[in-house]
Amino acid sequence: MKIFSEDIILLKEVQKDIPLEIYALHLKYKLSPAQLARSIEKFSSLDIITIVSNEYIRITDFGKKWLIANKSKIYLFDRDSEWKKIPIEDAIESIGANKLYKVDLKKIDTRILKKIEGEK
Amino acid sequence: MNELPLDRLNDKINSEDFSRLLNLHIKYKWLENEHKAVFDLWCLTDNDIQKKLIEKLMSNFLHVDSARLNKYGIIIAAKIENEWNLNAQNTFLVATCDEREPDGSQMLIQSLKNKFTREWKGINFFNSIVVGANEINCDSNIILVDDFIGTGITITKKTKYLNETLSKRGITNYTIRIISIAAMEFSIENLDLLNVEYFSCEWLKKGINEHIPLIERNIYIEAMEMLENKLLKKHGSKRMPKFGFKRSESLFDIEAFNVPNNVFPIFWWPYLKDKKERRTILRRV
User: Taking CB atoms and an 8 Å limit, are B25 and A55 in contact across chains?
Assistant: First the structure.
């Protein structure tokens, strides 16, 4: 099962064990209807959450146990860090394990160094 | 289910719109792939009737994904082999494509190839009606294959072309049949005139005029006209077909296929009145 950022948000919020208003997740995090529909479908089909009157969701007893059993996987490891992925257009050829690498000094943005030194 | 990350919204939307969009996405999972276009279409509406119209159209929309396409392929193969009792020795499936550009009939014939029993070989399938009409010989069963029959005008032309070409070549004693994934019910009028057997996995009604009760129909026709008024009437040499080609009002697409121009243009016409491009749920080249 692939876990997206909205899944983590939904699971964190729904743990509070009160019926969670779906719209509140949109207001708080600007999650789109498509994101929430996918997330709700995913977890309700696994009986982790249940939909209450179309507008609220609630964690099930099984869901509580499932969350505890999988908390490290969900919150720490099994998540694609989309922000870490380099777009194809920006990617360059990777450097071999034993190849020497020399930094191209001209390409380094030195403004941050100047600021550290207190230069204005 | 889409395995790609989805974007958050840039702005907050009101509770009513959120709830209705959420329901659309929960009911019709295929919309997830084009969720931004769904949102844009929703934003194109001005009033509740237009929003209701979109909800009604979506509820009758036939979206054929790859699993369903596979299922239809099996149904078609069974129809040909078991009901029509045609065999591989003298039966040829011919895509209706007659142009340089590929079309849905070729995609369909490709997906049909592996649904038949082992006797059927590559020579039983033609990806162009031009090649088929010029290579098929006497005593043949010819099955014209198209993914979608809208008005029936195109399939009529193709059938006539096939008859004329075979006749010019002196080919006699053949039968023509027609098969499609989906067809509009009103095309039966044209199909019956061809005097050939035909089969469609699905028969579709017009999205507004045949689905919405008479008492409220005019309100929804007006709502669609208002929505279409927000789109560019003509782009280059292409005119936007109001309510779909010849007012077909079709609600149909096959995943990854070019959408037929019979479908309501709000789903695929890519230009707004001010000539700006818009994101669309479906695409047509």
Answer: no
Are B19 and A27 within 8 A, CB to CB?
no
As its CATH architecture, domain B66-204 has 3-Layer(aba) Sandwich (3.40)
pLDDT at A72 over 90: no
Residue of B nearest to A23 (CA): B15
E strands, chain B, are 62-64, 91-95, 125-126, 141-149, 175-184, 197-204, 234-235, 238-239, 252-254
Name the pTM for this structure: 0.84
* Domain covering A5-81, topology: Arc Repressor Mutant, subunit A (1.10.10)
Interface predicted TM-score of the whole assembly (ipTM), two decimals = 0.82
Query: Which carries the bigger pLDDT value, residue B3 or residue B262?
Result: B262
**Does the beta-carbon distance from A26 to B12 stay under 8 Å?**
yes
Residues of B in contact with A23 (CB under 8 A): 15, 18-19
Tokens 């749920």 sit on residue: B281
Closest alpha carbon within chain B to A55: B19
* A–B CB contacts, 8 A cutoff, strictly below: 70
| pLDDT tens per residue across span B180-215 | 999 999 999 999 999 999 999 999 999 999 999 999
Q: What does the domain layout of chain A look like in residue ranges?
A: 5-81
pLDDT at A119 over 70: no
Query: What is the three-class DSSP state of B47?
Result: coil
pLDDT in tens, B143-153: 999 999 999 99
Q: Does A39 touch chain B (CB under 8 A)?
A: no
Euclidean distance between CA atoms A63 and A69, whole angstroms? 10
Among A110-114, B62-66, B257-261, which stretch is predicted with the lowest mean pLDDT? Answer: A110-114
Q: Where are the alpha helices (DSSP H) in A15-118?
A: 22-29, 33-45, 61-72, 111-116
